[in-house]
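Example (one chain per record):
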Amino acid sequence: MNTFDVIVIFLLFNVGAERRHRQRHLPDRRADRAVTLVTVNAAVDRLIASSTTAARIFDGRATTVISDGHAIDGALRRLGLRRSELDLAVRAFKMATTSRRFSRETLNPVASSC
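Predicted structure:
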């Protein structure tokens, strides 16, 4: 599930909740909006799967966060990460693999499915 999927879920919820705020005599277009949102989301997901350029636009690029064994503060700020979050991720990775010193590491955009 990527960020775009979360936005679509939020908008679908909004379409469903909109009925409370609308007058009863207006035509109900909720189903049309929901189908449109799901269709556009599916089309964008297929585009991302078939095009590396689209994947880079929607998902982003890898960001180097550790260089020469030191965290890059500017990259952490751009990603909205705290140093403590990076330290926790590095510790967890070290425990999962072997104890080694990190000379250069990047964060890659990865879309996972639920």
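Caption: The chain has a mean pLDDT of 76.
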